[in-house]
């Protein structure tokens, strides 16, 4: 996750997530239609926590249905607090993977059977290594995999680069790619025209699934705390957590 100019609270200026009328028109899709039974699921997260923000509810549903799951964490997220003495890179490189373990535990994802790949790429620098990243992802994909990652037009450089790299890798290997918006939902409402609504499908979540996803997001203590000494706000803004209360997740086919 990266800093973004997010407006705090539902009553602030309209953003896509809380004002776009198209959201109500998105058709629902069953997870077993999205991911046929017996298919392996691969989730590619640019930074620790992106898998929860983007598809924490879907991860819960798929794990309860006993799908084979693989998570690729491209970076360790250690550059999330630039210039901070409270959250220096060395500390974050240890803390953020630990936060991911706890978040997945809170989601109910069985860690003993989860294949977890850590890429070790440097965050804030993925566009410059996009070709290498695509080759790296392709090594861990198999024909027929269903892959979920950040939308290649999400508006965050790392998210966009991972989306593009994953698309190339899936094309090379013969896997199916679905993209997930994160920061795009917090664009100003006037930008809703740039969302590919016809490709969007809604995965409905029950109250319990939403609660577990929020509980998992709160495992990222480093992202809920900024550094007031240098004027750094929390990376995980309150409005982002508010958006996560919606009873659905959206995927672009």
TrEMBL record:
<dbReference type="InterPro" id="IPR003737">
    <property type="entry name" value="GlcNAc_PI_deacetylase-related"/>
</dbReference>
<dbReference type="InterPro" id="IPR024078">
    <property type="entry name" value="LmbE-like_dom_sf"/>
</dbReference>
<dbReference type="Pfam" id="PF02585">
    <property type="entry name" value="PIG-L"/>
</dbReference>
<protein>
    <submittedName>
        <fullName>PIG-L family deacetylase</fullName>
    </submittedName>
</protein>
<dbReference type="GO" id="GO:0016811">
    <property type="term" value="F:hydrolase activity, acting on carbon-nitrogen (but not peptide) bonds, in linear amides"/>
</dbReference>
